[in-house]
């Protein structure tokens, strides 16, 4: 979250809320004094909560705080917790008056209209914002693929976040909604798989700290390999070269501990390419899902979609992830071309589609893993103009494209020039429209109203 025009987000927080439930465990009686006690306890419970990293530290230090995760698999499930999270973000972190700012929020491409309505109600009723625009994350990520003055608004966005993975085809800035694919494997599943591998091997990791250790191991040491068998042989042949060592401190006793990090370094990211090693219910590799997504899109867009596959989200930042994805996807396309030529008897030569995966984080930096937790209050007086960000800057692509004000990006958002604030306001849902028509104004998104 942060303010528009900033080079990077002001804050990056995990979407978690710690609520103090001890206030609510009061006996229910008809006594007036006890009723006042219960009322005061309810007020205190509404005020005594923490979000983000503060929430995680509070839950570790005190048993009276229970963690609530408002977002599950990319969708908001606990709206009370989500409202509390937004409240702390706006007033405690950004320290701004929401009535003075237009807000840009991002959403998952498969968000139901009812969720957008709830979001509009909270923003307009609770925070009294003057204007609101709800953008689709993959469309903003695709805008980060601009490397020339020519706008490439057609491509496939592979958005692998912490809780959800979506493959979204975009044609001329509009989402092809019927071809969106979603798979039940995401960054959190990689963390759980790493945790499972370390636990089965009997590593000396405290149970209460095992998930956090697995997450840090994933972010710091995991990489994508080209062949599992060769990688196993390399580790077995020279363990000292490939096995890493982790040192930590037990949170309860403060005693130091250490453990080894071995096969999970490459087996963690492998769940995207061989999901059967983790989930027996879903066995379709990510490259096959991307190919199926493109094949279900309109035929005149497929060649352009293969040429521009954009990776977005923290779990695409593993070393060589984009190379492995491009190699496996090219194998699928080449096999289809050969089968087609064999079926035609070699009479007609099929022109091969160019498969190209765009990977922005070439340096492998893993800093902005939670960059999709995004709230962007838009300052009405916008006049600054930024140059095109470099590849190393676009690690948190959704944020940067939201915050960078240039005409090409605004075409993606709503075909509006952001150098002109009055035109941007025309794209937003305003407080006056909400009061006249209700929350139904937030049900639809213009990027879904394409030609397909």
TrEMBL record:
Entries under CDD domains matching the protein: ASKHA_NBD_Arp3-like
TM region positions: none
Keyword entries, A-Z: Actin-binding, ATP-binding, Cytoplasm, Cytoskeleton, Nucleotide-binding
Principal place of residence: cytoplasm
Cytoplasm as UniProt keyword: yes
Entries under SMART domains matching the protein: ACTIN (SM00268)
GO CC annotation terms, alphabetical: cytoskeleton
Domain of life: Eukaryota
Coiled-coil features, chain-numbered ranges: none
SUPFAM superfamilies linked to this entry: Actin-like ATPase domain
Family matches, as InterPro entries: Actin (IPR004000), ATPase_NBD (IPR043129)
Gene Ontology molecular-function annotations: actin binding; ATP binding
Subcellular location: Cytoplasm, Cytoskeleton
Family of the protein in this entry: Belongs to the actin family. ARP3 subfamily.
Protein name: Actin-related protein 3
Source organism of the structure: Carnegiea gigantea
């Amino acid at each position: 979250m942060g303010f528009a025009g900033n080079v990077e987000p002001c804050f990056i927080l995990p979407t978690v809320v710690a609520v103090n439930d001890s206030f609510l465990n009061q006996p229910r009686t008809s006594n007036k004094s006890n009723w006042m006690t219960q009322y005061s306890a309810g007020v205190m419970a509404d005020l005594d909560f923490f979000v983000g990293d503060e929430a995680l530290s509070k839950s570790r230090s005190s048993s009276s705080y229970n963690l609530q995760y408002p977002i599950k698999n990319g969708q908001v499930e606990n709206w009370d917790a989500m409202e509390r999270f937004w409240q702390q973000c706006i007033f405690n972190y950004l320290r701004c008056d929401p009535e003075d700012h237009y807000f840009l929020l991002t959403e998952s491409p498969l968000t139901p209209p009812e969720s957008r309505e709830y979001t509009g109600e909270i923003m307009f009723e609770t925070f009294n914002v003057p204007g609101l625009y709800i953008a689709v994350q993959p469309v903003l990520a695709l805008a980060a693929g601009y490397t020339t003055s020519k706008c490439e608004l057609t491509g496939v966005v592979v958005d692998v976040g912490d809780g959800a993975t979506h493959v979204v085809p975009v044609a001329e800035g509009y989402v092809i909604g019927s071809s969106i694919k979603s798979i039940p494997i995401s960054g959190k599943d990689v963390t759980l798989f790493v945790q499972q591998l370390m636990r089965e091997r009997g590593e000396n990791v405290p149970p209460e700290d095992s998930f956090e250790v697995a997450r840090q191991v994933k972010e710091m040491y995991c990489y994508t390999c080209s062949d599992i068998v060769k990688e196993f042989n390399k580790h077995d042949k020279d363990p000292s070269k490939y096995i890493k060592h982790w040192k930590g401190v037990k949170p309860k006793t403060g005693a130091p501990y250490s453990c080894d990090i071995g096969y999970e370094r490459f087996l963690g990211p492998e769940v995207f390419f061989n999901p059967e090693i983790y989930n027996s219910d879903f066995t379709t590799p990510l490259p096959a899902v991307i190919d199926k997504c493109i094949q279900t899109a309109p035929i005149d867009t497929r060649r352009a979609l293969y040429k521009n596959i954009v990776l977005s989200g923290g779990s695409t930042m593993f070393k060589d992830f984009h190379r492995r994805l491009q190699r496996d996807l090219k194998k699928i396309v080449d096999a289809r071309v050969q089968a087609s030529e064999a079926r035609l008897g070699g009479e007609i030569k099929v022109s091969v589609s160019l498969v190209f995966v765009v990977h922005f984080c070439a340096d492998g930096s893993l800093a902005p893993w939670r960059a999709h937790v995004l709230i962007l209050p838009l300052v009405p007086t916008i006049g600054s103009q930024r140059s095109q960000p470099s590849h190393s800057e676009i690690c948190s692509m959704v944020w940067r494209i939201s915050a960078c004000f240039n005409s090409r990006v605004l075409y993606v958002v709503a075909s509006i020039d952001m150098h002109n604030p009055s035109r941007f306001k025309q794209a937003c849902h305003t407080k006056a429209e909400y009061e006249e028509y209700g929350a139904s104004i937030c049900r639809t998104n213009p990027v879904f109203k394409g030609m397909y």
